[in-house]
Every structure is written in C-alpha cells, then in structure tokens.
Design a protein that fits this description.
Elements (H helix, E strand, L loop, with lengths): L13 E6 L3 H12 L4 E7 L2 H11 L3 E4 L2 E2 L2 E2 H11 L4 E6 L3 H11 L3 E4 H16 L7 H11 L16 H11 L4 H8 L3 H14 L5 H16 L2
Parallel strand pairs: 1-2, 1-3, 3-6, 6-7
Antiparallel strand pairs: 4-5
C-alpha cells in the first residue's frame, strides 16, 4: 500500500496592510496582529501613494487606514481603494471622533470605524468582523446612524460642520492644522484656485465672514477634535 508522506498544506494567512503616519502605532498594531496564527501584516505605509503601491504589490485582504496621513488624506485613499480594489476590506482606526467621521467613511467605502482609544481593547474584534464581511461600529455609533436614517439624530450629526462635503472637511481640517492654501493644494495635488473655491464654500456653509474668521474657526475645531 502506498503511503502519502505529503504534509498537509497550511491555510493561507489573511494579509493586512497598515496605513498610518505614526511608526509607533504601526508597530503596536503589528505586535497584536502577528500574535494571531491566521493573520499576518504584509506591509506598512505612511501616506496614500505608498499605500496604493503596497496594495498592488502585496494584495492584502484588509487595509487598516488612519484618516490623517503624511502628505495625504485617508478619506481619499478609501475612495481610491473602493474604485480600484472593490474587494479589499477597509477598517479605519483613527483618533478623530467617530460621531462626525464614521458615517462619512462608511459612505466612502470603508467597512468599519474604531477610535484609537477603543482599539486597544477591541481591535481584533473589529478586524475579524470586517474580514468576515461585516461592518464594525461602536454600539453608540450604530444606533446614531440608525437614528439618523429616520431623522432622529442628535449631537454632532446636526452641527454646521456636518454640511461640509468630504473634501471640504479635509480642507477645513488642514486649515486648522496651520497649512497655507499653497500647502493644501500641493498635498491634495490640486491647483490653488480649486482650494480657494473650497475655502469660499466652507465660509458660506459655516457662515464665516472672512479668511481670519475661517482660520480661527478651523483652529478651534481641530483643538476640540484633538482633545477627544
């Protein structure tokens, strides 16, 4: 009788790409993920453009993306992924308040949102939920999105800043981070006139008088966001 000496083939690990501009965050996530026998970090990136290169090279099953990236914006990356790699799952892990951002990233094509504060306890639950085809949100956020659907949303969902489009919010936050119009244009790969148009729309939607009023409002907004 013939004996089959072949060893069983080990199942393929699920590949995860980390996209965050803080090396310590990527290192911490790598440590947690690599402990799992069926998961592996296949690459890291600190900006949108390197992330797209790594996706093409490594073909991950999941991209974990921060909203604030070096020389770029996580929301734009999410839209790129949805357009170019529709089968790739995306989980956003961010310091920003989920009340404003979670619904936006889900609309943009992400499959989950978890704050960095919550991630220390629940990152594996979020990862496995998204990898198995689910959507991960905190219980509070899921309830708020459901309430919003029937017109009962309260809190930040009704703030004036929520009137801004995704790109307008990105420009608004970059203004609050102290970037000039030229710097914003360079980072978003747009011309200065386009950024000036966004600035005008933001002032109109937020009922702001002038450029100084816009700057002060944006700075205050970022101070609140950074304290969450």
């Amino acid at each position: 009788m013939a004996i089959d000496n072949k060893s069983p083939v080990a199942p393929e690990k699920m590949r995860i790409l980390l996209v965050d501009d803080h090396p310590m965050v990527r290192e911490r996530l790598t440590e947690v993920i690599q402990r799992e026998p069926d998961l592996a970090v296949c690459g890291e990136a600190e900006d949108r453009f390197r992330a797209l290169e790594m996706i093409a090279a490594t073909r991950p099953h999941l991209a974990i993306v921060d909203l604030t990236l070096r020389r770029s914006n996580g929301m734009e990356l999410i839209k790129d992924i949805r357009s170019r790699y529709p089968a790739l799952a995306v989980l956003v892990v961010s310091m920003h308040d989920e009340t404003l951002h979670a619904e936006r990233v889900i609309r943009a094509g992400a499959h989950g949102y978890i704050t960095k504060q919550e991630a220390t306890r629940k990152i594996m639950l979020a990862i496995r939920t998204v990898l198995t085809g689910g959507v991960y949100l905190s219980g509070k956020m899921a309830s708020q999105i459901a309430a919003s659907a029937v017109g009962r949303a309260q809190t930040k969902a009704s703030l004036p800043v929520n009137q801004l489009s995704d790109r307008e919010l990105c420009v608004f936050e970059m203004i609050g981070q102290g970037r000039s119009t030229r710097q914003i244009a360079d980072e978003l790969h747009l011309d200065v006139r386009t950024i000036e148009t966004y600035r005008a729309r933001i002032k109109e939607k937020l009922n702001l008088k002038d450029a100084n009023d816009l700057l002060q409002h944006a700075i205050r907004w970022m101070q609140v966001e950074g304290s969450l």
